[in-house]
Design brief:
heterodimer; A: alpha+beta; seven-stranded mixed beta sheet; five-stranded antiparallel beta sheet; about 20% strand; B: mainly alpha; 2 strands; about 70% helix; about 0% strand
Chain lengths: ~650, ~375
């Protein structure tokens, strides 16, 4: 193309361009003003709003978990403390693919394949920016394994945290309890804020009951983070003023528990399934609280794998079961002294009036024979020998005369059939039967009727009645102090770790028993003394430099849960009677009241009484047998 | 006496400088404006890259290349520029097709040709070639252009635009469209047609929606409601408005912007560098930059209006206007006025070949002004 032939009006075109150029200037000016207006809006008008947002972007509040309170025994020995431990933690929002990350950790052996689902649940239940522990207590080799593979796991890191440690392992585990990983159900009832940065919570025992004072209060610290959530200490000339709020460390607890006595008691039980509760009758202090078999609470503190937990949970000996607080057994003959006191108080029996024991008792007009444990009977017995020889017909007759209501009311004064009020949770009430109780306990109308025969066996602690070892120890303590009554307690003092100021807790007295006279108390305590001096448990008192009042008992095992895992001989073993023994000493000024239960121990005098003696020796004489010493033999009587 | 001496010395220096600039066919005020923007840009880049001298160094190298190209173009006779326009256009179109074909075969987004030492974006070349060619076509027609000319121009503009958008590079495609469009507007397109095209644009936007890639739709949707996806596609806009807003009037201080330095702000030294300026240097820092840009644009428009030749006028006017379009689109995007489109802040954003293209364009503009009395 060329300009030839085309007429161009240059002046017109010049004018046209100038108009358009002016229009362009106008548009440029308008848009520039729009831009400036936008900047003024953002930077002047909404400056405060955006400043807040920018501040929230770069500052994150990180919890500073408070160290958990330390637990001491009554001598000041440490039962639970905190040890620095390495753990694997994960920040959910920094992990690109949770599933792949967890599977990767399984591959390098840091996580059990069974635990992946649990880990996922834990991670999902936490806030996305919180660091969530997924594996506690890493070993050196674990850390090395993670170290070389770290690049594969963005958002996962090793952190040092204080972890709970129980230096004596299994010892006293059922009193102490343990801390374990916070579960989904825990999360529903706790304040998540208070547990930020903590992975564990007290699960049972003292750790659970005193969770709040033990935990303390978390502090917090502001940290500067970059867009990837990494903490940035200082960046070029950027150094913000960040605040730190220190937390409050958890309160230390001083227990009533005597670790040395506790260990002696646990050794004395050996591998039997048993429970022991020893109380100071003068204030309710729990000297020893044993439930065997036990388990190592450190397992829970460091995080159990599913397999480990299943092994504990499926063990037929039920190591997780707290027999001392939650095991309910027929108390058997151990309640006879209390029944005798009821008879005296209600004026039904005279202490010296002889009773002729012919080996059984029958209700008037009935041919049913309630048998004595000794088939040929005890012959003529008075109150003292009825207790010391544990003559069943004497108490059959007595309870029949007392009647179920008076029996129930009197035994109730000794705390039976109700919680003792011990300062850790989970205790069972057992059953103190009555016609009213029977109406609520059974659905069928025909089963709701109270039969006179049920009153008869109630008097020797059989039938519907069940008690926990703790309840029987509590009852023994009331007997020992002739009616003084205290709630059992495991914690005697709290200490503020910062000021070291101790706060002693006062014993919690319950209304004392007033029904019985001194004379009556003397009579039944004398009966219990006779148990140890010529009675059923004579051998267990041999050579004791202090006086002991005791009572043996056996609890019939009515049924055993049929479990396919048991073999023939094991079933037979588990159908044997439970052995009971209660005692207090010294009689003149009691310092210890004890209840011993040995499951399927067959004989209270043979198995339970020697254990009680060993524990009393340890506490009263500070006599500690070597760990492998044999428990002295008890009496060979069946009772 | 002494004062007169100083004055005369100054005058002599100025005269000499003017002579040198004149010999180099450079425009003093425009050069000063561009120099100040570039210097400001390098200063901000050091902070925006987190104190990385290498970034500044590489930026300076690119700036150097741009300046060299500007000098080269400034020396060219307007006739040479005019005659090379269609050839440049043809070359650009060929390269665009190659890039699209390579991208199609390689089954991926493809915007550049790897020349070994640098990556060259043909679409960048088209930003200059399209307005040049439009001006070349219009120079030989009577203005305002008639219908046939307009159809020819539409084809010349839309083909490279489409080829760029399918790469896919919506931002550059729209810039090519605008560059060509501005030439047509400056050529005196009748107001009636402008209005008609506006309506047509709205209608075709509605149609075009169905042809956009998902990520491109997402950008539009995000612009309408950034909070709908604060950690996804809305993240850029939210973080950059926080950065600007929290800067206030005076800013948080050089290298002390938390949004930028802690990397909350994405692409802080490339497309979103304006937010770093707003955060660290505040409203005043941003106004200074906008002021410099407006000065350059007005100076360039003034120079264009002084030209006697149609090709020179149209091309220069377009180069001046499109420079402002860059600024407005980028600053508007970063401050949340416009959707996120990948348009760099002229002479400040790090990377890309846009700085080279822009300076080359200003070189042409200076050449055209220096030879304004001549018919190109």
């Amino acid at each position: 193309m060329s300009l030839r032939g085309i007429i161009k009006d240059f002046w017109r075109e010049q004018r046209l361009f100038e108009q358009r150029a002016i229009a362009a200037v106008v548009i440029v000016a308008t848009l520039s003003l729009l831009l400036v207006g936008r900047l003024v809006w953002l930077q002047v008008v909404r400056y405060d709003y955006f400043t807040d947002l920018s501040q929230g972007n770069r500052v994150r509040i990180e919890p500073l978990p408070a160290p958990r309170g330390i637990i001491y025994d009554r001598q000041g020995l440490i039962l639970a403390e905190n040890q620095p431990a390495y753990q694997l933690e994960l920040v959910p929002e920094q992990v690109p693919d949770l599933e792949a990350t967890l599977q990767g950790l399984v591959r390098i052996g840091l996580l059990d394949a069974d635990d992946v689902d649990d880990a996922k649940r834990t991670v999902r239940s936490r806030r996305p920016f919180d660091s969530v522990p997924i594996r506690l207590h890493l070993s050196e080799s674990d850390m090395a394994a993670f170290g070389v593979n770290r690049f594969e796991f963005p958002g996962v890191d090793i952190r040092t945290r204080l972890a709970r440690s129980y230096p004596y392992g299994e010892t006293a585990v059922h009193a102490l309890g343990y801390v374990g990983t916070i579960s989904a159900s825990d999360l529903e009832r706790i304040d998540r804020e208070a547990y930020a940065g903590t992975s564990t919570i007290g699960k049972v025992g003292i750790e659970a009951a005193y969770e709040n004072p033990l935990r303390g209060r978390n502090g917090s610290r502001e940290i500067m983070v970059n867009a990837r959530g990494r903490s940035v200490e200082k960046l070029g000339t950027l150094q913000p003023a960040l605040q730190t709020r220190p937390g409050e460390p958890g309160t230390d607890l001083f227990l009533t528990l005597d670790l040395e006595v506790q260990r002696v008691a646990e050794q004395a039980v050996r591998d039997q399934r048993a429970a022991i509760v020893a109380l100071d009758p003068n204030n309710g202090d729990v000297i020893a609280l044993v439930s065997r078999p036990g388990f190592d609470p450190n397992l829970f503190a460091r995080g159990l794998t599913r397999t480990e937990y299943a092994a504990l949970n499926d063990n037929p000996d039920r190591p997780l079961f707290n027999r001392a607080l939650r095991g309910t057994y027929p108390p058997g003959s151990t309640i006879k002294p209390v029944v005798a006191l009821a008879g005296l108080t209600h004026g039904i029996i005279e202490p010296d009036k002889p009773f002729f024991c012919i080996g059984y008792f029958s209700l008037p007009g009935s041919s049913h024979r309630f048998r004595d444990w000794r088939p040929k009977g005890h012959g003529a017995v008075d109150l003292r020998s009825a207790i010391s020889q544990s003559c069943d017909p004497y108490f059959y007759s007595l309870s029949n005369q007392l009647g179920v209501r008076r029996l129930n009311a009197f035994l109730g004064q000794f705390g039976l059939g109700q919680p003792t009020g011990i300062d850790i949770g989970g205790e069972k009430s057992g059953v103190l039967p009555s016609p009213e109780w029977k109406k609520t306990a059974f659905k069928q109308r025909s089963a709701q009727v109270w039969f006179p025969g049920e009153t008869v066996i109630f008097g020797i602690g059989q039938g519907y009645m069940t008690s926990t070892p703790l309840q029987l120890a509590h009852m023994t303590a009331i007997l020992a102090t002739r009616g003084k009554n205290f709630e059992p307690r495991l914690v005697r003092a709290l200490r503020d770790p910062r000021t070291q100021r101790m706060t002693e807790l006062k014993p919690a007295p319950l209304p004392p028993l007033q029904a019985a006279s001194t004379e009556h108390w003397d009579l039944i305590i004398d009966g219990m003394r006779a148990v140890m001096e010529g009675g059923t448990a004579t051998r267990s008192a041999a050579g004791a430099p202090y006086s002991i009042a005791g009572k043996t008992g056996t609890a019939q095992v009515f049924s055993v849960a049929q479990n396919a895992r048991y073999n023939e001989s094991a079933i037979a073993e588990r159908l044997r009677d439970h052995a009971w023994f209660i005692a207090f000493a010294p009689i003149e000024s009691p310092r210890i009241a004890i209840a011993v239960l040995v499951e399927n121990g067959r004989s209270g005098s043979g198995t339970a009484a020697p254990i009680a003696r060993t524990v009393m020796d340890a506490y009263l004489l500070r006599k500690f047998p070597p760990a492998d010493a044999a428990v002295p033999l008890g009496d060979a009587t069946e009772e | 006496m002494l004062r007169e001496d100083v004055d005369s010395t100054t005058r002599r220096t100025l005269t000499q400088t003017a002579r040198i600039l004149g010999a180099l066919r450079l425009d003093g005020p425009l050069l000063i404006g561009l120099g100040l923007i570039a210097a400001y840009g390098q200063f901000v880049l050091y902070s925006a890259s987190g104190g990385d001298w290498n970034a500044v160094l590489r930026g300076s190298v690119r700036l150097g290349i741009g300046v060299a190209l500007m000098l080269v173009f400034a020396q060219m006779k307007p006739g040479v520029l005019r005659r090379m326009s269609p050839w440049l256009y043809a070359l650009g179109l060929l390269l665009l097709i190659i890039v699209d074909a390579v991208g199609y075969i390689g089954k991926g987004a493809q915007r550049w040709l790897d020349l070994g030492f640098m990556r060259f974006q043909p679409s960048e070349l088209m930003k200059l070639a399209v307005p040049m060619t439009c001006a070349w076509v219009l120079r030989e027609r009577a203005l305002p252009p008639d219908g046939r000319t307009l159809l020819l121009l539409a084809a010349l503009i839309l083909v490279p635009t489409a080829l760029t958008i399918i790469q896919p590079d919506l931002g550059t495609g729209l810039l090519i469209l605008m560059a060509g469009g501005i030439v047509v507007l400056l050529a005196g397109l009748s107001v009636r047609i402008i209005v008609g095209l506006g309506i047509g644009a709205i209608f075709s936007a509605w149609i075009g929606w169905y042809f956009l890639h998902d990520y491109q739709r997402q950008r539009v949707l995000t612009f309408i409601d950034p909070q709908a996806d604060p950690l996804g596609s809305g993240y850029h806009i939210i973080q950059s408005t926080i950065a600007i807003g929290s800067g206030g009037i005076f800013g948080k201080g050089y290298m002390r912007g938390t949004q930028g330095q802690l990397e909350f702000l994405p692409e802080r030294h490339t497309d979103f560098v304006f937010a770093v300026i707003g955060e660290e240097l505040g409203l005043l820092g941003a106004l200074l930059l906008i002021g410099l840009y407006v000065f350059v644009v007005l100076r360039a428009l003034f120079l264009a209006s002084q030209m006697r030749d149609t090709f020179a006028r149209l091309l220069s006017g377009c180069l001046a206007s499109i420079f402002f379009v860059y600024v407005f689109i980028n600053a508007g995007m970063v401050s949340g006025l416009l959707p996120v489109v990948g348009v760099p802040l002229p002479l400040v954003s790090y990377g890309g070949t846009s700085m080279v293209t822009l300076l080359a364009g200003f070189g042409m503009l200076m050449s055209l002004y220096a030879n304004r009395k001549l018919a190109a």
